[in-house]
Structures are given as structure tokens and as C-alpha cells.
Design goal:
Blueprint: E1 9-15, E2 33-34, E3 37-38, H1 39-47, E4 55-60, H2 65-73, E5 86-90, H3 95-109, E6 117-123, H4 131-144, E7 146-152, E8 157-161, E9 166-171, E10 177-186, H5 187-199, H6 209-213, E11 220-223, H7 234-244
Parallel strand pairs: 1-4, 1-6, 4-5, 7-11
Antiparallel strand pairs: 2-3, 6-10, 7-10, 8-9
Helix pairs in contact: 3-5
């Protein structure tokens, strides 16, 4: 486990391989426009505002490598700051497969056994992440080995019978958190977690990386922010465009 103040390298994995079926977009979700930018470029700009990355790996959907490169190099927000420090890699059919593909590229950069390195994993669809939250979750992972952003559950929760849609019981929300990204891990932890999942031939169904790591390493939860929403539906996209002042019109026109 990395001690406070230990020298470290920070690598990023920003997931851009999702097709965004529920969004109803003609483009993969990460490349959807928000004003003059995209979900991907907005996410990258916010991530690097308070954290310096050794390199950022970006898994992209099959057939969209050139489009991904155009998005990065054409962003006025990034202004060349990622030029030479990002690397594209083809993503998989699932989120878990995309992360594993990128982790194998990270492993080529981490040469020394036991080297102090952490890996930040973020969904490009969370393009409004607060930069100070990014700094806090990186610091927490550097100290404890694994950390994720999250928010305490505030809504009332009911268990509902699926056939009749009748509420069966109220579920206590005490101790329940809504988990966000970034999630940050010591390289050894996150690489082990994904390698063991692959070796066990588990179906790639993990909803997040903390799900795999927490099997053998405690994952600290760091308070995030409501603005760090994940763009999933057209309503989410309209909200993000309103918040950043985008002028693309309704999301149904994307």
C-alpha cells in the first residue's frame, strides 16, 4: 500500500468505447458534442486540471480510432496538452474488457516491480466531474491503495415485485452510496483484479472496477458531487448541455 508522500506516477484510463444505445445517438456516446467540445474532451480537460498524468489510455469503439484522434486533436480545451501523453487502444464489447485492454498497455509502462503507480479509471460520459474531487480520490488511493468517488443515497428505496410493480418493503438507505468515477487503484491491485477475472473465465459483468478490487482490498469511498452525473439518456445530455452552455439543440437531433 502506498504511503502518504511516496513518489508515484499516475496513469489514466478514460473509457470511450460505449455505444450509448440508450442515448439514441448516431455516434458513440463519448464523441457526442456539447457546444464546441465532446463528452470525451470535457472529461479529459477536467481530469487533468489538478492531476498530472504520466499517460492517459483511451479505449475507443471498434472502427472509431480516427474519429477519437480527431476529437482529441481538435479540442480547444485540451490545446495540445495531451499530445504525446495519450494513447488510443481498441476497446472491447464490455466495459470490463475495455479496462483490461487498457491495463495491459499500462503494464508496459510500469517497468519496476513494486513501482509506485496508481491508475485512475473514469467514464468519459461523466464530463462534469469536479477537479478537486479528482485530486481527493487520487490522494486517497495513494494512501490506502484503492478509492472511488460516491454519494450517500438520499432517496427512499423500495423493493418492488417485478410482475405486479407492487412495493413489497422499504429498504434502509443507511450505509448505501451511489458510486461514481473516477475510481483509482494502485496498479498492482487493479491489474491483479482484472487478471484473476480473466483467468477464472468469469463473465465480464462487473459494473465497476471497485467490484473486482474489493474482493481482496478495501476500497475507500470519497465524497463526490451531484454534478458528476453520467450521461445515459437524452435528458442527461440536455442537462449537461444546459450546464455548460452548449448550443447543440435537443439531444434527439444528435
Amino acid at each position: 500500500m502506498t504511503g502518504a508522500g511516496s513518489p508515484q506516477r499516475v496513469f489514466g484510463i478514460v473509457l470511450a468505447a460505449g455505444q450509448g444505445t440508450r442515448l439514441g445517438s448516431a455516434l458513440p456516446k463519448a464523441f457526442v458534442s456539447v457546444g464546441e467540445e465532446t463528452l470525451l474532451s470535457l472529461s479529459l480537460a477536467r481530469l487533468q486540471r489538478e492531476v498530472s498524468f504520466e499517460k492517459v489510455f483511451i479505449p475507443y469503439p471498434d472502427g472509431y480510432g480516427d474519429r477519437c484522434r480527431e476529437v482529441l486533436e481538435g479540442s480547444s480545451l485540451l490545446k495540445g496538452s495531451l499530445r504525446g501523453s495519450y494513447e488510443l487502444c481498441q476497446g472491447g464489447d464490455t466495459r470490463q474488457q475495455s479496462v483490461w485492454a487498457a491495463l495491459q498497455r499500462v503494464s508496459e509502462e510500469v517497468d519496476e516491480e513494486g513501482e509506485r503507480a496508481v491508475v485512475l479509471i473514469h467514464d468519459a460520459a461523466r464530463c462534469l466531474v469536479d477537479p478537486s474531487s479528482v485530486r481527493r480520490v487520487v490522494d486517497a488511493a495513494s494512501l490506502h491503495g484503492a478509492a472511488t468517488l460516491g454519494l450517500p443515497q438520499t432517496d427512499s428505496l423500495k423493493r418492488v415485485e417485478p410482475e405486479t410493480s407492487v412495493a413489497e418493503e422499504t429498504v434502509s438507505r443507511a450505509g448505501l452510496w451511489r458510486i461514481q468515477t473516477p475510481q483509482v487503484f494502485e496498479f498492482a491491485h487493479i491489474f491483479r483484479a482484472h487478471r484473476e477475472a480473466v483467468e477464472a473465465q468469469e463473465p465480464p459483468t462487473a459494473t465497476d472496477d471497485a467490484d473486482l478490487v474489493q474482493r481482496f482490498c478495501p476500497v475507500r469511498v470519497v465524497l463526490g458531487a451531484e454534478q458528476n452525473l453520467k450521461v445515459t439518456t437524452p435528458w442527461d445530455l440536455d442537462l449537461v448541455r444546459m450546464l455548460v452552455g452548449g448550443s447543440n439543440g435537443p439531444s434527439s437531433a444528435v
